[in-house]
Structure formats: structure tokens, C-alpha cells
Design brief:
about 550 residues; alpha+beta; 7-stranded antiparallel beta sheet; 5-stranded antiparallel beta sheet; 22 strands; about 20% strand; disordered N terminus
């Protein structure tokens, strides 16, 4: 078939790879730019190329050109009829308009071109779907609430989307042990509400809790706001049920605190982003809800004071410290300017940093006394310049809203380059300051995160995506993180965005072993392809 003439938008300073379309592809044209023979960058949010049967895709925040695996089959009418036979026609979505939200991440940064979304209602249906897809070599992408930030939950090309949203039942809850068993499609906020009514709490809490699903949380090893107190999902998840690429169901849904019989394989599925299997059920250890919760918002003059305040909080508050978050003045300004109803409870003067502290305990009088003594001592030692202690649950919620609204405020401000990094606490804000020096007035560099566990969220806000800005950010941000012995992904995963950057945090031998595990468990590579591991190892 002859190639159509490409549409030229405007001249670019680099050699253009024009994007072609044939009669079966989406009639859109994008372009990507070539800096040199080995390193591609991009000039818009996403790009698509189909020429001579070969598909390529470029994304911002991802150095490298992704090529569609030619081994993957393309969806046909027989496939659709087979899935309708398993699920019923209502659970097989191929309407283009209905597919748009599932094809696009919530930041509108990554976009796929899947023509089919499946909504299984049971593990058996997931098993049948994967068994068939594996036999046909049809690539799939598992999807929960689609709240990820690294392109891990949306298709790259035409992968079949398997949504777990219809598998949303709480199966059991044991009040004696505090162990919850539920399906992967349960929305996190619904689990939190259920447990609250039972007198328990979920050890995981996120700003995206109203949309994210527990299967996605487990698959990305989500960290959240209270990891400093309750630890990671590797410690709280007792068991999982997962379906392998060939349809085999692994029942590891244990409800035991101790089980030393062989390899603890559930950990392979916690944090592997659906690349080794699809999590369908989880069992989680949940702690009792304690009666005494206090929240304080504090102002600090500099980052050094924030660090010292963290040290003091660990010493003076000890076991009742359940959250320690920080945000800089730029983060606060974004929220105040872009979120309706948000207000700074410390407006009398400009503060460089804000710290949100939460304590959780069982003795209200003792806990409050301990917190007030800590705050008084911190004020006397000039670690904090101002502060307010929430007087009721509404005020506490308004404090938390300031911290949790930062991602949405950034979205409203324009384009975002977001980096989720683990760093030594004393080095965290140095990266923010160096990035400001590099970018100058070209961008608004914003720093916030979970100071209690050394997790920085570095956000670079601009009016639109720009290759020149991106080239100033990457690979500098990864090199800087590696140089200071950090991790390029603290809690959001690698997804598509960072798959090729894994060597900044892991040795070549370690990554090679990961690839060997992938090849063993998913030899056809149909599960969430192009994500997590370098394309050179999985091609």
C-alpha cells in the first residue's frame, strides 16, 4: 500500500521522522526528532509511526524509540467473538469513544491505541483470557484505576486492556487477626471505609485513593503517606492470587503471619507492575484503628530545619509518629493558586518550607501532651517558625488536602515532568536547588514528598512540553540520583518512562536476572510489554 504524504506541522531544528498512516491506523500524524544515531527525543506528548508494517512510538521523559514487537499478533474479529463468548458482549468494549479513557493515563502524557478492553468478573475469566492471548501471542496490559505516573497502566501500541474494575468484592475480614481478603479491583478508598466501620485502618493511604485499586497498588508496591509508620506492602501483604501469562492460577492467598515453606513467591508480584502475572486477589494485614490522631502543619525557615525536625520527631514522638511530609513554598503556592477552596493556615508571612506531622496512638491525653511538648521544644530551638495544630477532623482534613492536592494542582498549571526518587534525606533538596539553577526561569521547579522515608517528588512545571527543557532534566536527574546512591523510582514504579533507565539503580547482573525471571514466567512477553525492563533485554 502506498504511504500517505505526511503532514508537516512546522520546521524543527532536528531531522524529522515523519509519521505515516495507512487505512487501518488512526488518521493522525505526529513526529519525533533525532538528536543522534542512538538517542531519540520527542517534540510532543506522544508520537506514533506506522510505515511498512513497523510501528514505533516516542514519549516525552523517555530516551529511546520503542518498536512494536513484531511477534505480537493483531486483534481480529475471531478474537473478539471468543472474548464475548467468555465474558458476554457487555464486558467486551471496542467502542472508540469508550476506549479513550483506558488508552490515556490521567496526566494525558501517555496514550495507547488499544481497540479492545475486557472486563472479567472472576479469576477464572482472567485465566481463560490469558491462556487464549498467550496461544495467539496477543499482548495485554492489566489496568486498575489508571492513576499511575510512569505510563505503566496504559497500552503502548494496540495491547488488549484487561480491566480488573469489575472484580471489586471484599471476600472476608477476620476481626481477631485483622486480615482482609479482597479482589484486586477494590478501590482503595472503599477498603478504607469498610475497615473504618470495622474499627480497623488500611496501612496504605494515597492521594489517589478515590480511584486507585488495590491490585494496582500491590503491583506497583505503592508507598503512600504512612509508610514511615506501617512499612511497605512487602510487609503488609500476606498473600496474593495471581494469573500467569499461560493462564495458570497461582493460589498464594495465605492469611498467615508466618510461613517459611520454600520461596516466598508473592513478592515477585509486589512491584513487578503486572509484567510477571496479573494479581486477582490479595490478603492484607490491617492494624486496629486507634482513638488518638493529631495533625499539625508547621513552617520551617530552611531545609536543614526540616531535617532536624524529623530527627527530633523520631526521638520525641517515637512510636506514635505516623506521617512526616514536607512541601516547599512553591508547592504551597501551586495548591493555593489552582485548587478551589484551598488556603494556607499560616498566611501571616512567607515560609520557605512546610511540614505536616501526624501522630496516631491509643491515649489521647498522653499523645497530645507528647506532641505539644515536641512542638514547644522545636519552637524554642528555632526549628519551626510557626505552626498550627488541627482542632478537629475537618481542620486535619484541610491540612492533608494541601499535601494531597499537589499533583492535581500541577496538572492544572500545565505540563509536568515528574520524578519519584529515593535519596538520603540530607541530599534530597539539593537536587531541587540544582534543577532550579539548571532551568532558570524556563520552569517552576517544585519539591515535596515523604521526608520520613526519604522519598522526594521532584516536579518541573512548564506551560507546555519542550524538548529543550527535557534535555536539561534528563539524564541529569538520573545521573545525580545514581551518584548519590538513590533510586530512580521510590514508589511509582518504572513503567514505560523509566524502563531503559533501570541501570541507574540496579547492576547489570541484577537486571539480567530479572530478565531471566521474565523469560521463564512469560516467555512470549505478552504481559505489559515495553515496561519495567530495558527493551534491549526483552526485545
Amino acid at each position: 500500500m502506498p504511504l500517505k504524504k505526511p503532514k508537516v506541522i512546522k520546521p524543527l531544528p532536528y531531522f524529522l521522522f515523519c509519521i505515516f498512516s495507512d487505512s487501518t491506523s488512526i488518521d493522525e500524524y505526529y513526529f519525533c526528532t533525532l538528536r543522534n544515531a542512538h538517542n531519540f527525543t520527542v517534540s510532543s506528548i506522544f508520537h506514533y509511526r506506522q510505515a511498512s508494517g513497523i510501528q514505533h512510538k516516542c514519549y516525552s521523559s523517555m530516551a529511546g524509540l520503542v518498536e512494536r514487537n513484531p511477534r505480537f499478533s493483531k486483534l481480529n474479529d475471531d478474537d473478539v467473538r471468543y472474548f464475548e463468548g467468555i465474558l458476554g458482549s457487555k464486558s467486551v468494549i471496542h467502542d472508540e469513544e469508550k476506549l479513550i479513557p483506558a488508552n490515556t493515563d490521567w496526566m494525558h502524557k501517555y496514550k495507547g491505541f488499544s481497540k479492545l478492553l475486557l472486563q472479567p468478573r472472576s479469576t477464572d475469566q482472567v485465566s481463560q483470557i490469558l491462556k487464549y492471548c498467550n496461544s495467539r501471542c496477543l499482548a495485554v496490559v492489566p489496568q486498575g484505576g489508571n492513576t499511575g505516573l510512569v505510563g505503566g497502566s496504559v497500552p503502548v501500541f494496540d495491547e488488549v486492556i484487561i480491566s480488573l474494575s469489575s472484580m471489586n468484592n471484599i471476600i472476608s475480614f477476620d476481626k481477631v487477626s485483622g486480615i482482609l481478603v479482597c479482589e484486586a479491583g477494590c478501590i482503595l478508598e472503599n477498603i478504607i471505609s469498610f475497615l473504618d466501620n470495622e474499627g480497623f485502618i488500611m496501612p496504605l493511604d494515597l492521594g489517589a485513593k478515590g480511584s486507585c485499586q488495590i491490585g494496582g497498588n500491590v503491583s506497583t508496591n505503592a508507598g503512600g503517606l504512612r509508610l514511615v509508620h506501617y512499612g511497605s506492602l512487602h510487609g503488609n501483604v500476606l498473600g496474593v492470587e495471581a494469573v500467569l501469562a499461560n493462564g495458570t492460577v497461582l493460589d498464594m492467598l495465605k492469611t498467615l503471619r508466618k510461613d517459611n515453606t520454600g520461596y516466598d513467591l508473592k513478592h515477585l508480584f509486589i512491584g513487578s507492575e503486572g509484567s510477571l502475572g496479573i494479581v486477582t486477589k490479595v490478603s492484607i494485614l490491617t492494624p486496629p484503628k486507634l482513638s488518638s490522631v493529631n495533625v499539625a502543619l508547621l513552617a520551617c525557615k530552611d531545609y536543614s530545619s526540616c531535617q532536624e525536625l524529623l530527627q527530633e520527631a523520631k526521638r520525641k514522638l517515637g512510636e506514635i509518629l505516623s506521617a512526616f511530609e514536607f512541601l516547599d513554598s512553591q508547592s504551597m503556592d501551586l495548591v493555593i493558586n489552582h485548587m478551589e477552596g484551598a488556603r494556607n493556615p499560616l498566611p501571616t508571612s512567607v515560609h520557605n518550607f512546610y511540614v505536616l506531622i501526624e501522630t496516631t496512638g491509643s491515649d489521647e491525653s498522653s499523645d497530645k501532651q507528647k506532641l505539644e511538648a515536641f512542638l514547644l521544644g522545636s519552637m524554642e530551638n528555632e526549628l519551626i517558625s510557626d505552626g498550627v495544630l488541627a482542632q478537629d477532623i475537618n481542620q486535619a482534613s484541610s491540612f492533608w488536602l494541601l499535601r494531597e492536592s499537589i499533583p492535581e494542582a500541577l496538572m492544572r498549571a500545565g505540563a509536568i515532568y515528574h520524578y519519584d526518587l529515593s535519596l538520603p534525606v540530607e541530599k534530597m533538596y539539593n537536587l531541587v536547588e540544582e534543577m532550579r539553577s539548571r532551568l532558570g526561569n524556563a520552569a517552576n521547579v517544585v519539591g515535596c514528598g515523604h521526608l520520613g522515608d526519604g522519598n522526594l517528588h521532584l516536579n518541573i512545571s512548564t506551560t507546555q512540553y519542550d524538548d529543550k527543557i527535557l534535555s536539561q532534566i534528563e539524564p541529569f536527574v538520573y545521573e545525580w540520583t545514581s551518584k548519590h546512591h538513590g533510586s530512580i523510582s521510590a514508589e511509582h514504579g518504572l513503567g514505560l518512562m523509566k524502563a531503559n533507565e533501570i541501570f541507574y539503580s540496579k547492576s547489570r547482573e541484577t537486571v539480567q536476572l530479572m530478565a531471566s525471571i521474565k523469560n521463564l514466567m512469560d516467555p512470549n512477553h505478552i504481559l505489559n510489554p515495553y515496561k519495567v525492563l530495558p527493551h534491549s533485554l526483552i526485545s
